[in-house]
Amino acid sequence: MAPPPLHLFSPSPRPPSPTPPPWLHGPHVPSTSVSPPDPATEAPPAPKQHRGPRPAPRNPGSAKPLTAGVPGGRTRRAVLGIIRKVRSLELSDPRTPSPNGGGGSSSSSTATARVPFHLPIHPPPPEREEEEEKKGIRRAVPWAAARDEETKVVLRREKKTRVPTRAETELEAGELERLRRAARGKERWARAKKAGITDEVVEEVRGQWAKGQELAGVRIVEPLRRCMDRAREILEIKTGGLVVWTRGGIHFVYRGSSYLENAKRHRDFVNYNEELSPVTSNNPTSQGKYWSKDETLTNDNDEADDKDDKPIKGTLYEREVNRLLDSLGPRFIDWWWNTPLPVDADLLPEVVPDFKTPFRQCPPGVRPALADEELTYLRKHARPLPTHFVLGRNTKLQGLAAAILKLWEKSLIAKVAVKVGIQNTNHEQMARNLKRLTGGTVILRNKDYIIIYRGKDFLPGGVAESVIERESQVHDQQAKEEEARLKMADSLQMIVGLSSERSYVGTFREYQDFHDSHARRTTENNFRIQLEAKKHRLEKELKDQEWRLSMLTKKIERSNQVLAKLHSSWSPSKKDGDRELLTEEERRIFRKIGLKMDEHVLLGRRGVFEGVIEEIHQHWKHKEVVKVITKQNQASQITYTSMMLEVETGGTLIAIERFTTSHAIILYRGKNYRRPTKSAPSNLLTKREALQRSIEVQRRGSMKYFAQERKKSIDELKRELRNVTWEIRKLNHDTEQSWTA
């Protein structure tokens, strides 16, 4: 008979003195009588070496609290959480009455002292239990068992298995190590293009091999560098070599021991393909499948012969996607992401005979426009899908449109990538042409991808033909019924003698006339509504632009008033008629001296104010020539500034020299120069007033520019409003004439 289940917290027997509950202290260890050790038989304990201060002695009788932290992992807060969970398990576990009644209290207390917790922990082996009983060790808490090496469980992330490369499988280990050592010392390599590994790169690699080098390095650039495994596959396919080592973004390709024989065989293969078809020779990937890395180029006949011999590779989804893309067109071998390889849209025909935009019809009660939630869902749905096409031209996309229509019969979305490294590609023009040819909805367009949704009103080829055929049959049947009705009416008129007036009430002709008139009126009403809405929008925008122009005009007037107030406190000096005359030789000498000077006066956005004049006089205190640097660009402004400096300082203008980003004004102080008593003139603006003037001038110039742009937009709006008003009047006049007629 199995023993009764132990409780999580069994009540301990009542001792003479009250004891704290077990969840506040460690497990209760029953006291046992231990005889004193024999000093003759017991070995002396080994002395312990203490490097730091000796810790305080611990009381052997005091137990460690149960809520204390566990060294090596759990904190006090985590331990309290474990205790709360254990208590909840105790409350949910009903106690089983003891079969012995009151007599089993001693056995129950003993069992409780031994196992105070009832948790599903695997018990240790019996040999370990015997050792623990001899040493007096008790496993009372679950985390103590969890710290045991035998019960500890470590969950490690499973590493992805590495697939060996072709070089590692085909070459011996010694030969591969030799080639890698040789590649480490190679310092020159070819550079791949942004468009991928083109024919020029392949020829450069083969040129290095032809010179007698075993290895040729190729530096991979974006976007092919995003997937170096794919770059290795393309290199091995196009060059016929083996990539033996990769360093950063550089692949080192080994030509192989039988390089000359392979090169001759490759030339014969290319010549044979050129004799067959130029399209297949330019694109050898049109008949191949590249889903897995181990597959190579094979022809359809060889694939049919070896179909039973080759094992099936890839999942069902991969094989279906591969089969679908093979049916759409030739593959793009220079694809910079993983397989499946997309279809090269540039190799599809530019013009398809008898191509036209497909017939579309939306189901009843369904709006063709996409809601925001539907658009978001479609974009999320398109993200994990493989890329279907790669496009590099902007126009002549009828072949791509036909392939997209064929793809839409199996998929809701067509994902087109834009080729990288091709000049004059315009993804906006591509999307516009594809939308016009297919009639789909562009849900995403950027410089990398164009994603087109087939639309809610899309009908596959067979369904569209059936709908068109059924509508034509219904129309023919209605025409036959109308013709039979007219014949019957004529026969009755001849027999009975009815009036010759024909009534079209309830006939097919009445339905056609009503449908035509209703459609015409609906079209006219919709056009009139659009014109009225456009007129209202133009009037509102015109009123808004006029109000903005009036506000700009008021601000310009206010700025003019501020500038006039600043100019009133500025009284420039008059030009002195008695000036010193300098010869050409003196001017040439002073010009050279001024150009060689490193010290200069910098003229900033404040222009000429009293601080600039004071600094020029400080320069003239020690030197005869001063060089003033200005950042002004217009010749009129530079000339005005130089003349103003000459008048305000009383010096002589030597030259105006043009530098790369500035101009230099060279001034000579004169032979009879005398330093003024007050170096800062009082007739010019102060530093603060000059800055305020500069800001107001700049502000007024920008406001004048925007006012001119507002006037241009107002004139354009008035012209459009006149055209719309004239179209509305013409439409009303035509409608009145049709009603009177």
Automatic annotation (TrEMBL):
A GO CC term assigned to this protein in UniProt: chloroplast
One Pfam family it belongs to: CRS1_YhbY
Keyword field contains 4Fe-4S: no
Keywords: Chloroplast, Coiled coil, mRNA processing, mRNA splicing, Plastid, Repeat, Ribonucleoprotein, RNA-binding, Transit peptide
Subcellular location: Plastid, Chloroplast
Biased composition regions of type Pro residues, renumbered to the chain: 1-24, 36-47
Sequence ranges assigned to domain CRM in this UniProt record: 169-266, 368-465, 580-680
Keyword Protein biosynthesis assigned: no
Composition-biased stretches (Polar residues): 278-289
Coiled coil spans: 528-555, 707-734
Region of interest (Disordered), ranges: 1-137, 275-311
GO molecular function terms noted in the UniProt entry: mRNA binding
One BP term from GO: Group II intron splicing
Superkingdom of the source species: Eukaryota
Alphabetical list of SMART domains matching this protein: CRS1_YhbY (SM01103)
Listed name of the protein: CRM domain-containing protein
Source organism of this protein record: Oryza rufipogon
